[in-house]
Amino acid sequence: MGKARILILGGTTEARSLAVALASRADLDVVLSLAGRTADPAPQPVPVRSGGFGGAEGLARYLRDEAIDLMIDATHPFAARISANAAQAAAQSGVPAFALRRPAWTPVEGDDWVSVQSVPQAIAALGATSLRVFLATGRQEAHYADTAPQHHYWVRSVDPVEPPLTAPNVCYIHSRGPFRLEGELEMLRRHGIEVIIAKNSGGAATYAKIEAARQLGIKVIMIQRAEATGLSDVETLEAALNRVDHFASSLMKRGV
Hints:
By secondary structure, the chain is of the alpha/beta class. It has helices spanning 13-23, 55-65, 80-93, 119-125, 181-190, 208-216, 237-254; strands at 4-9, 28-34, 48-50, 70-73, 97-100, 113-116, 132-136, 152-157, 170-174, 195-199, 219-223, 233-234. The strands form 2 sheets. It has a 6-stranded parallel sheet, with helices on both faces. Strands 6-11-10-7-8-9 form a 6-stranded parallel sheet. α6 (208-216) links the parallel β10 and β11 (219-223). The longest helix is centred in the C-terminal third of the chain and has 18 residues, at 237-254.
């Protein structure tokens, strides 16, 4: 009997943790798919496929051509298009699939959040008066800041923002999480940050800036996730591993 072939759609801490947990299993053949947007991705414990598939049709074709038995969508909570394509491809190909989606952050006592639905809404919510803004949305949507050039921006991303923003007062911070509370407090104090724009990514890797904002009394303009569609989901690595175990044992019983 052959190994169960599993495709993980990745790019997140959860995807890497899942790949680590499954890499040593003799009954599984795991491939991790990365979008290829990061210039120098971290090493991975399983074979990696880099780049897009060509939409839902291309992904469905890949699932059939590579005889994938199970697909796990462990992409970023804001990768809505990829997740929609995954759901559509699973339906088209008949390949079982589920999502590993970390729960969103929720405000606690002391948080000062303004909820918006997109980066453009977040930039608009800054208002007309010049502010010192920590823009922590990643590089792909940072250019929306150009629509409000009166603010002074500190933009943090793994890779450089290309092309650079046209707003006159922009500083770039290149670093990769996870981030620690002490470092975030120091950074926010040093630059005199007055407001943070962040995506509600969930998870621990980037939560320190939210904790730091609470301690320093800094407002956070929080971009909320779009409603996930299509695939059933689990919120923890443990739950995902249980699903994989259940799937692998059912394959063995069928003698596939």
